[in-house]
Amino acid sequence: MSNPFTSTHxxxxxxxxxxxxxxxxxxxxxxxxxxxxxGIAFVPLHGVNALCLFxxxxxxxxxxxxxxxxxxxxxxxxxxRSSGGAVQTWLSLAEILAGRxxxxxxxxxxxxxxxxxxxxxxxxxxxxxxxxTVWHGGPTVENTSPRISPxxxxxxxxxxxILQNFAQRTENLYRWLGINSEILNITSGLSLSDDAKNFxxxxxxxxxxxxxxxxxxxxxxxxCFGFTGxxxxxxxxxxxxxxxxxxxxxxxLNIIVxxxxxxxxxxxxxxx
Length: 272
Known about the structure:
272 residues
């Protein structure tokens, strides 16, 4: 008699492989570079209702896209491969898709707005082998309002109302999802622990590098920030492997695991 868990696992892996191939076929340029111009595509495959969000979405008309997406009741999969970008587009898509996505599948990279907005909305979250999900901050009420967080200075100028609108919408989305938006504050500073700093300086000597973001482990995402459904999330676990995986994708991709401000006490404080 076959092992049902193994059979289910093999079937899931097969579906994931087929979906990733189908999405890469739709956006061949993004297959080589997750920052290239991409877009949105529907991929009906083996009875699976799937949506590809690939590459930069800066040329996507988010009004038109959200109207189109709103017409479909649910999605079995949203497959992502992107370094992020335009907050308005990614946030608007997440607002429309929230509550209607069974699985989010990361192919190679989901970073910045992709990690902030699309990764959290899947009931189950899959990160395929040798792939990275990376945070480096995002708009929250705390980091856009000097009244609430005087040290941040808030925001000013003509962008202020836009950013504060993003912040409030982000907070509303995270509250609905049950996720702590402190993940966006704690990853904004791009701070380095002494161990991380020493490792990176030794690895890159004699060159200095700018940190791109944080590939936070699933146990921390769950315990500290309320993420769920991450049994299928690939994560190498330690700084050495994560950093080298990032550099294998791009010499400009300098990923570490946790910000210096993270520790067990911080985790307890922000998870309530």
